[in-house]
Specification:
409 residues, mainly alpha, 15 helices, 69% helix, ABC2_TM, ABC-2 type transport system permease protein, abc type-2 transporter like fold, four-stranded mixed sheet, 2 domains
């Protein structure tokens, strides 16, 4: 019992010494401080401001009106009245519209064919041709969506007028045109805004990037000055890595418990990003997320001989992390190999759980799989981090002893 208490006492002292040492290292390193402040707060504000308009509006579109009738002008007026498309109908032929498109004065071209009104009145089918650059998916979907919508409304108006000319009531004519009524409801992201979609994802991803970069810089500094074993002397003793690792993880968790309310409570509120979860649930969820990232950072920091190496490495790592997070393409559509790779990166379950909490109003039970996934990664990376720290401390100790012996000789 006495030995157990002694072990606990040493672990407790080591925990608080590590907590204090790591905190002093963070405060005294301008690069780490700027990383935490600039990326977690300033960069998030900048990105949120950039996407604050949420949706693209008034995309300029060239209208080539080859018919020049009242009905074609009505069609143009309807297209111009949409929120997303701004019709520019000053082009007399397709070649002139092409020149405007290649000069980026317009983002698409809509051609109203000759005999547009005549063919409609005679009951013939009319083809509206639309050109839009599919390499820019935002503009492409906006133009195509608005043109498709106006085509539907315009066709409905023509059909209903013909039915009313036969003596059919407006209500009956509408029913005849659309025997199946579709009701579309946007869930969670009700405005279909881009900021509401991307900012929660970036918030969770920023946690990983900032932690890995900060830990990498500090680790590189200690590697350069050979101070890992002196800053954390318990690493040289049996079981000494456990309190050291737990202290580091608890410190960074405490830091993000201050940062997260600023992000979701102030930045989100300023730009109208909804938050559909309590702060307590977010805290409970980020604990294994931060722990797993901290242990991953300590593990990979063994690769860094200088502090600058961590920045280069993490810049390269940030793009794969972003791609594998499911932000740009659904994870379910990845090949099995990349699905496996994505599962070993903490940001994958971290982003999924955070987005479901803050945007989909998920209960804790509904994100329990992501939470358990993060704890599994925490356990795995804890083992790797313990081995990595132990080896580094022993190497430094043996290296300094060897130098001391040579100096004595």
């Amino acid at each position: 019992m006495k030995n157990l208490f002694k072990l606990y006492y040493k672990a407790k002292i080591s925990f608080w010494n590590t907590f204090s040492t790591e905190w002093k290292s963070i405060k005294s390193d301008k690069a780490v401080i700027s990383t935490f402040l600039s990326v977690t707060i300033i960069i998030l504000v900048v990105y949120t401001y950039i996407y604050s308009n949420q949706v693209v509006k008034e995309v300029p579109v060239a209208i080539v009106n080859q018919d020049a009738t009242k009905m074609s002008r009505d069609y143009i007026a309807m297209l111009d009245a949409t929120e997303g498309t701004k019709a520019i109908s000053t082009y007399t032929d397709l070649q002139e519209a092409k020149r405007a498109y290649y000069s980026k004065n317009v983002q698409g071209i809509v051609i109203i064919p000759k005999d547009f009104e005549k063919n409609i009145r005679s009951g013939k089918q009319v083809v509206i041709t639309t050109f839009s650059d599919a390499s820019n998916m935002v503009f492409y979907k906006r133009i195509l969506g608005d043109v498709t919508t106006i085509n539907g409304y315009f066709s409905a108006g023509i059909f209903i007028k013909k039915e009313m000319a036969k003596g059919v009531s407006v209500a009956k004519a509408q029913e005849n045109y659309t025997p199946i009524q579709a009701i579309s409801t946007s869930l969670f992201n009700t405005t279909a805004g881009y900021a509401t979609y991307i900012i929660p994802v970036l918030t969770a991803l920023i946690v990983q990037l900032v932690l890995l970069m900060g830990i990498g810089i500090l680790s590189g500094s200690r590697r350069e000055t050979v101070t890992t074993h002196t800053n954390f002397p318990r690493l040289l003793h049996k079981g000494g890595t456990i309190p050291v690792l737990l202290a580091k993880a608890c410190l960074y968790t405490a830091i993000f418990m201050v940062i997260i309310p600023i992000q979701v409570g102030i930045v989100y509120a300023l730009f109208g990003i909804p938050v559909r979860s309590s702060l307590l649930l977010m805290y409970i969820f980020i604990i294994p997320y931060v722990f797993s990232v901290v242990f991953l950072g300590i593990t990979i920091s063994a690769l860094f001989k200088r502090r600058e190496d961590s920045i280069v490495f993490l810049v390269l790592l940030s793009i794969p992390s972003l791609m594998l997070s499911g932000l740009s393409f659904p994870i379910e559509s990845f090949s099995e190999f990349y699905q496996l790779i994505s599962k070993i990166i903490p940001s994958t379950p971290g982003i999924n759980g955070f987005v479901r909490l803050t945007q989909m109003e998920a209960s804790f039970l509904e994100i329990i799989n992501e939470w358990n996934h993060l704890w599994i990664l925490t356990a795995i990376y804890f083992v790797f981090a313990a081995i990595s720290l132990k080896i580094r401390a022993l190497k430094e100790f043996n290296h300094l002893n060897l130098i001391a012996k040579k100096e004595i000789v």
